[in-house]
Design a protein that fits this description.
Layout (H helix, E strand, L loop, with lengths): L1 H23 L20 H12 L17 H13 L1 H6 L1 E5 L3 E6 L9 E6 L21 E3 L2 E3 L7 H16 L8 E6 L8 H11 L6 E4 L4 E2 L9 E8 L1 E10 L3 E2 L8 H14 L11 H8 L5 H8 L1 H13 L2 H7 L2 E8 L6 E2 L2 E10 L5 H12 L5 E5 L16 H14 L5 E6 L15 E3 L4 E2 L1 H4 L8 E3 H20 L2
Parallel strand pairs: 3-6, 3-7, 7-17, 8-18, 9-16
Antiparallel strand pairs: 1-2, 2-6, 4-5, 5-19, 8-9, 10-14, 10-15, 11-13, 12-14
Length: about 500
């Protein structure tokens, strides 16, 4: 009897610990200062939509490194002329400098030189439309048509919506007589989609001039209207982005006729190397930033079961990781990802290749590094004869530092998001999975954030780079209002 009572007491204590940890799991006690969003001038989604539609008609398309090539710059030059004509008051209030030929760097001089500036970013270029898919769009992709309050077109979200609504904010403030105390930069790169030189050159110039910014804001995250883990709206402000590395695995072997193949030819050994990478994934970083605060921040809005699993990873951690691994986006949030993308072997079906190769792309979590990735590849393929690892030239980057969520800049973004985008959405720091121009900014600021103040459903987010990229006129009004509030909040923040 005594043994049974002792066992029951242990069980009760065990359950109490699990429930207690679940109920206490939530945002950390430390947080950014709270700011009250100021009133902003009224914004017309219809007017902004008309302007964005016009901007989309300038086909500033980049598809490969080096775009736009010499002689193909005219859409950008025409777009610059259109910006000057459409936002005359803002252009009168600011000075404009062109960097690397086509990147635009506006400077709105502040009256107080003791205040560090802020830098607000977007990019001018857009990705191509996949040939043959034009007929799948609800409207021609470069027509900028508005259908039932929705603007359809390439760049509607990525990223001309940000550029145009930033200029709408600047124009509205300038027309109201606003004169900033803190200098405001607007930086619009011209070749972000091909990891180009525009924004990189601009930040190198600012660093050379000794500029230190209190905030850099670029695209990256949004307020998700139907976040999977909460079932409701969730504002995610990107505080870091993943790094990028592409390697080629090469295996050499005897060529010859396929009628007498060796048992261990180059293709077989290359296949083993790819399987070894697939079966030896990088570890998850659920307990490290920014994922730690990402999950804790939304905990009060989760179901009890999900909250319990995350709060008790000491017990359920392996199951949590298994569930996250089923969702590619969730899995990509918590670890460095491995993606074989291109294969090359023989030129003929009956010829054994003398060399087989595979291109593998890695998106690197902030807790890892390029060196760790290369070490991992070497470790998991070391028992396979003849595997050569070649880091490809071209675009590669380390993961970014993780910016603090306890700054006035983060508080300003939070206040604008709550006021203009969604009052009910929890606000959490997040990790951006792709690469943005903001990765070049750390020489001028440690407070680098990635957030577009729009309320988007997951299917709308899926339209970025795809067919029927679109944005609502309501969201365009939200964005222009929020950007206005961010400028005003940062001008007041001390």
């Amino acid at each position: 009897m005594r043994f049974r009572l002792s066992g029951l007491a242990v069980l009760v204590l065990f359950i109490a610990v699990i429930i207690g940890r679940t109920l206490s799991y939530g945002p950390s006690g430390e947080s950014a200062p709270r700011l009250e969003a100021p009133d902003a001038p009224a914004m017309s989604g219809e007017v902004i939509g008309r302007h964005l539609g016009e901007a989309i008609r300038f086909q500033t398309v980049t598809g490969k490194a080096g775009d736009p090539e010499a002689g193909e710059e005219q859409p950008w030059l025409d777009f610059h002329d259109w910006l000057a004509a459409t936002y005359p008051t803002a252009h009168e209030a600011m000075t404009l400098e062109k960097i690397a030929g086509l990147t635009l760097l506006y400077r709105w001089e502040g009256s107080d030189p003791s205040l560090n500036p802020i830098i607000l970013m977007a990019h001018q270029d857009v990705v191509p439309v996949s040939p043959g898919t034009e007929g799948d769009w609800d409207a021609p992709p470069f027509a900028g048509e508005i259908i039932d309050g929705i603007l359809v077109g390439r760049g509607a979200l990525d990223d001309k919506a940000s550029l145009i609504t930033l200029m709408e904010a600047a124009e509205g403030l300038a027309q109201s007589g606003f004169a900033p105390k803190r200098t405001v930069y607007f930086l619009f790169g011209h070749d972000e989609e091909v990891a180009g030189v525009g924004a990189k050159s601009a930040f190198a110039l600012l660093e050379e001039r000794g500029v230190t910014a209190d905030m850099v804001l670029d695209e990256g995250m949004v307020t998700v209207a139907n976040a999977p883990l909460t079932g409701g709206p969730l504002t995610i402000i990107g505080v870091a982005e993943k790094g990028y590395l592409t390697v080629e695995l090469q295996v050499s072997g005897e060529g010859g006729h396929s009628s007498t193949p060796p048992r261990d030819n180059a293709v077989v050994r290359l296949s083993r190397a790819l399987v070894a990478l697939e079966e030896n994934q990088f570890p998850s970083h659920l307990n490290e930033q920014p994922l730690k605060d990402f999950f804790r921040g939304m905990a009060p809005n989760m179901s009890f079961v999900i909250r319990m699993a995350l709060a008790n990873r000491w017990l359920l951690g392996s199951q949590v990781e298994k569930e996250l691994a089923k969702l590619p986006t969730a899995d990509a949030l918590v670890r460095t990802t491995i993606a074989p993308t291109m294969l090359e072997g023989s030129t003929k079906e009956n010829v054994l290749p003398q060399r087989a190769s595979a291109t593998v792309n890695f998106r690197i979590h902030p807790s890892d590094s390029v060196e760790k990735v290369l070490d991992h590849i070497s470790k998991v393929t070391r028992d396979i004869d003849g595997v050569e690892i070649i880091a490809l030239d071209g675009f590669a980057s380390e993961p970014s530092p993780v910016s603090s969520a306890e700054t006035q800049a983060f508080a300003a973004l939070s206040a604008a998001a709550s006021s203009s985008v969604s009052l009910d959405a929890p606000i959490v720091p997040g990790l951006v999975l792709g690469a943005t121009d903001a990765r070049f900014s750390y020489g001028v600021s440690e407070n680098v954030y990635r957030y577009m103040p729009a309320l988007l459903h997951t299917d709308e987010i899926g339209g970025i780079h795809g067919t029927n990229e679109k944005v609502s006129l309501e969201n365009l009004a939200r964005m222009a209002r929020a950007y206005t509030q961010i400028i005003l909040l940062m001008d007041e923040a001390q």
